[in-house]
Amino acid sequence: MIEQTVTVPPEERVRREPARRPVRPREAVRFPVLAVVFVCAACGLVYELELVALSSYLIGDSVTQASVVLSVMVFAMGLGSLLAKRLRCRAAVGFGLVEAALALVGGCSAMVLYAAFAWLGESRYVVVAFSLAIGVLIGAEIPLLMSLIQRTGREPGSGEPDDAAGTVADLFAADYVGALVGGLAFPFLLLPWLGQLTGALVTGAVNAVAGGGLVLWVFRRDLTARSRALLLAVNLGVLAVLATATVLVDDFEQAARRAVYGEDVRVAVHTDLQEVVVTGGPEGPPDLFLDGRLRVSGEDEYRYHEALVHPAMNGPHARVLIVGGGDGMAVREVLRHPGVRSVTVVELDPGVVRLARTDPALARLNAQAFRDPRVRVVHEDAFHWLRGAADRVRERYDVVLSDLPDPGITPSTKLYSEEFYGLVARILGPSGRFAVHAGSVTDRPHTYWTVDATLRAAGFATRPYSASGRTPGFAAGPDRADRSAGTGPGPCDWGFLLAVPGDRPPALGLAPGGPRPRSLDAETLADAARRAERTRGAETPPSSTLVHPRYGD
């Protein structure tokens, strides 16, 4: 038998061998993927923190808003992971579209949320909707990337082990480190430099560039020509929308601010801590808003500040401490009393005091109180300052005034706690008097009487009273101060508590020989005490904010 040797030309061998997809080295893909996971995780956490911060500012009660956003978003991430299973067969184009959608939704979330607040008067449902949408998109990222990265770096039949566990560990490590960077960048870089609206838009642009760039560059061979064109068009469209919104963000913010505060906005500044807005005509009384809540109504603020200050000055009042009061109105009333030697104001935000000094309308309203040489301003957290005050001050204070927002606003709650009142007791003289603004007696009686119980638990005897005459729209507490959106007239009174050390409640009156307030006299104070007592219900437990907060409706 004769054997024949058949020689196959090389080009014929190429045609007969089954075509095999080129395999990309694992390291060529691994580092770009991990870098994009890092960036996308940072962007995702910025979106999350943006929703928490803005919803707390617009709605109030930061604990509730953080709980809603975080819980909804974590649930939605699990839902997104399940939905991503349907996209695994087309993981590259799926990931590109997911990142484009996340960049658009997350980048525009702050503007849409603020627009809903300004023009619709309600933003709770918008917060939930954005938390759900962003969570679903974030949850789909890792499963799609896992599908992509597992297709690279190992040639079939090569015997090389598939290190799926190591890949998962790398992806989650990059994800967690990116989240750390995003969480730190939001308060220390984005908010101070760009603000909430522009910061979210810039974050969205970074997200779109990172996600789209990874797919169109590293995984371009997994895309058809039609898919590449689709992803390129979608990402360019998203970037165009974000860029346009960034250019128009100042005009949008001004229009939204006018929708919230009216047409006569004179000053609007963002301090390191809050948004401060002053409204009113050049000759009319100004209104001061802090984070969207009316704190000083120029038409009748004197009723509030006279009721807070003058009953407490009925006794020794040479040394006075004011906690809060950065607007200077309480200082004005204190300085009307003869015999005042020194006034210390502990105000956290220097921007409020600066505006109260320099704005002509506010300075006229507070009678240039901060120019008085007897007034000293300390820019520090009141709780922290009081912890060391007992060792620093040479003499105890005769009068302490707590001129703070309602305890329903979470940042203020610790300043209504038993621990805080215990610190006040350490620096108050034995015959000293302590006046506390405790919210509305009629609208929030539970909160008001919880403050009363907390003061008594800290060793004070109290005398409840209130002042009426609040103008429509005034909201010193967690209600939105929006007089243009039809949210109602708001509370019709302010509730106060006059406290002294010991077991004997103080007398409620005015200082003999002192100034005569426009809104107070002996009969008015007696009526104010009776009105407050009529709202007393069952005994409420005191609030220890550091352990068991009890404030709320």
SSE map:
Elements: H1 10-16, H2 26-59, H3 62-83, H4 91-120, H5 124-149, H6 164-217, H7 225-261, E1 265-270, E2 275-279, E3 287-290, E4 293-297, H8 301-309, E5 319-324, H9 329-335, E6 342-346, H10 350-358, H11 360-365, E7 375-378, H12 382-392, E8 397-403, H13 410-413, H14 418-427, E9 428-437, H15 445-457, E10 460-468, E11 493-501, H16 522-533
Helix pairs in contact: 2-3, 2-4, 2-5, 2-6, 3-5, 4-5, 4-6, 4-7, 6-7, 8-9, 12-14
Architecture overview:
The chain has helices spanning 10-16, 26-59, 62-83, 91-120, 124-149, 164-217, 225-261, 301-309, 329-335, 350-358, 360-365, 382-392, 410-413, 418-427, 445-457, 522-533, and strands at residues 265-270, 275-279, 287-290, 293-297, 319-324, 342-346, 375-378, 397-403, 428-437, 460-468, 493-501. The protein is an alpha/beta fold and 553 residues long. The chain has 2 domains: 26-152 and 163-258, Up-down Bundle (Growth Hormone, Chain: A), CATH 1.20.1250; 297-533, Rossmann fold, CATH 3.40.50.150. The strands form 2 sheets. The chain has a 7-stranded mixed β-sheet, with helices on both faces. A 4-stranded antiparallel β-sheet has the order 1-2-3-4, with helices on one face. β2 and β3 form a beta hairpin. α4 (91-120) packs antiparallel against α5, α4 (91-120) crosses α6 (164-217) and α8 (301-309) crosses α9. The longest helix is centred in the middle third of the chain and has 54 residues, at 164-217. The chain starts with 9 loop residues before the first helix and ends in a 20-residue tail after the last helix. Residues 1-6, 13-23 and 472-489 have low confidence and may be disordered.
